[in-house]
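Hi V.,

You were right to ask for the full record rather than a summary. Here it is.
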Amino acid sequence: MRILTALTYYRPHISGLTIYTERLAKALARRGHEVTILTSQFDRSTPREEVKDNVLIVRAPVLMRISKGVVMPTIGLLATRLVLENEIIHLHLPQFDAAGIALRGRMLSKPTILTYHCDLKLPPGLFNRTANYAVNLMNHLAALSAHRIVTYTDDYARHSPYARRYYGKVETILPPVELPAVSKEAVRCFAQEYALDGRSPVIGMAARFAAEKGIEVLLNALPEVLRSNPNAVVLYAGQYQDVLGEDEYAARLFPAIDKYRERGQWRFLGVLDPSRMAAFYPNLDVLVVPSLNSTESFGLVQVEAMMNGVPVVASDLPGVRQPASITGMGRIFPAGDSSALAEALSSVLDGPHEYRSDPELIANQFSPAAAAVAYEALYEKIKGEI
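Predicted structure:
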């Protein structure tokens, strides 16, 4: 099949949505499909067109940014051409341009699928509220043209104001998760690089430094955690500087974080490539996902940690609470409650044997190949209906 996949940001951008789309595109290409990515040229140093991992990437030039979005004057022309050239139209939302692309797919009687990754909630402010409304409107218009809407879990679909509205079109497919193999020596070298030998426990967090990630919840829980675990250290993997739209948030939190950094109790690792992430997880005693709202719908990093035998503590949010429920490898706590987070962390750290499962079974359940097979079946099902 010839599959057109559209999303606002693709590589080199890093986010859960981008990683999901890349893994799925590569898995579909490995299964013999022709996959084209239509996205923005948000980084002008990237080529307009290129082939990576047997996936064609087409980038539309960006005229300007609006909040966390982009304006692409030629996106309509590119979309028309690519919809005509492909058999399957697969859109990843939130995405402002999804409505027009979905309409083209519907008018040409081509299976049109939306993968709805999360609800959009921009930071406070009149301008962001307007942008939020505009994107949500376009998402709703896209839903009217789509044949199916995919969510990671039924839990999230039933609680999301968007997905719930179109529940009759919803299908659930577990997200694709994978990490490269890593040697024991690489894991040991990672520990030496960050002076982890003898440090216990090691608390990990892997996310962009963004308000919806709830970093302050972990920050506020640390005093209580350190009282019972004075040698604890937080390893924070992910972009923490110059994160789009998060300058004020970083300025508010960094003074408190810097005090812990000075004592060696908080370490920023920056963006790690997949092989480095694979060495990161085995060095953890627990991974924390303290997200605050429905912009987080699952937390792929939870499964990555579990694949390495690492338990998690995650917010009790629709979708986000599912990895611990599915695998039994973690605890959930009320979103935003730092005291409850500290208690949950202590529980996991004091009894890690209670949160064990089979990493290989988890890896197979969430493999990109499994997701690709599920999407193939959905594509064929819709082709048989139209």
